[in-house]
Amino acid sequence: MVMCRFSVIIPLYNKEKDIKKTLQSVLNQTVTDFEIIIVDDGSTDQSAAIVKNIPDNRIRLFIKKNEGVSKARNFGVQKAKSDFIAFLDADDYWYNHHLEDLNTLLTTFPETNWFLTAYEKKRTHNLTTKMVAPVATKPPGWMGIVTDYFYNSLVDCLAWTSAVCMKRDFFNRLSGFDTSITHGAGEDTDLWLRAALTSPPAFINTVSATHNLLGSNRISHTPTLKRTYLNLDKYEDDATKNNALKKYLDLNRYSLAIQHKRAGDTNAFKNYTHKIDLKNLSRKQRFLLRLPKPLLTVLIHIQGFLEKRGIRLRSF
């Protein structure tokens, strides 16, 4: 088997409006020793046809029945030729130095099992924000091992799928993405939790990836009650020894509680809020938890309205 430096794994499902730009961002990389493994997960649009029309022998397209993003990513890793797996979603994109930055990390920290770069979020056409984390505020170009992953993930998660690279054997030791979590309901967060509890990542605070929240056909838009979410409770034992992890879990519970309140699932809302140590939430977050559903919905619509005009409000 011919080896390459990176295997780039892209799950693809009905992204005909986005996949060409995403692929072009990989083909524009300053590091060129890679393969692109695209796993078409039963698309019903022209996604696969667009991929086939891009002439580059580094692209390998696999077409399978629709089984969800976790199985698609796991399948892609099984087909990988490289020892280093870089993930990219089919509507996100990279700056041309992304793989170069990852290559610097894995060369500088060869004993590390996974590697992260800083990223930005394209929220609206008028608003793009850089990830917020203490380690991201270090001098430009800083890189190092992050031993306090959860402390650095209390606003934005330090790891975002399209800015993560893992050693293939580490990914396999973690058993990959949990396929019981459906419709993008935290399969990535769950894997980063398991990874961080096993091995600290290397991180560079140079932004090299864009999380495109304007992408088409986003699985995160799947109705709440049709999704199977990650089980945060299985990390509670570890949280008794790690205050930052407990706060991280509670902030995720807060987010899920808000989603389920908006969806009208009172039992799930109560289940999530019952397990939150309210000291881990801000005053604004505690206020939002108490709001009736109609008022909460109005505030979230206001937030969306302001973001379209380039203004970002936190704590939602």
Runs in which pLDDT lies below 50 for 5 or more consecutive residues are none
Q: Averaging pLDDT over every residue, what do you get? A: 92
- In one word, what is the shape? globular
SS content category: alpha/beta
User: What is the domain total for the residues?
Assistant: 2
- Helix percent reads 25-40%
- SSE run: EHEHEHEEHEEEEHHEHHHHH
CATH H level, superfamily name of the largest domain? Spore Coat Polysaccharide Biosynthesis Protein SpsA, Chain A
Top-tier CATH class of the largest domain: Alpha Beta
Walk me through what this model shows.
This protein is α/β, with parallel strands linked by helices. The protein folds into two domains: 6-220, Spore Coat Polysaccharide Biosynthesis Protein SpsA, Chain A (Alpha-Beta Complex); 231-308, no CATH class. It is built from eleven helices and ten strands. Strands 1, 2, 3, 4, 5, 6, 7, 8, 9 and 10 form a ten-stranded mixed β-sheet that branches. Helix 1 (19-27) links the parallel strand 1 (6-12) and strand 2. The termini are far apart. The mean pLDDT is 92.
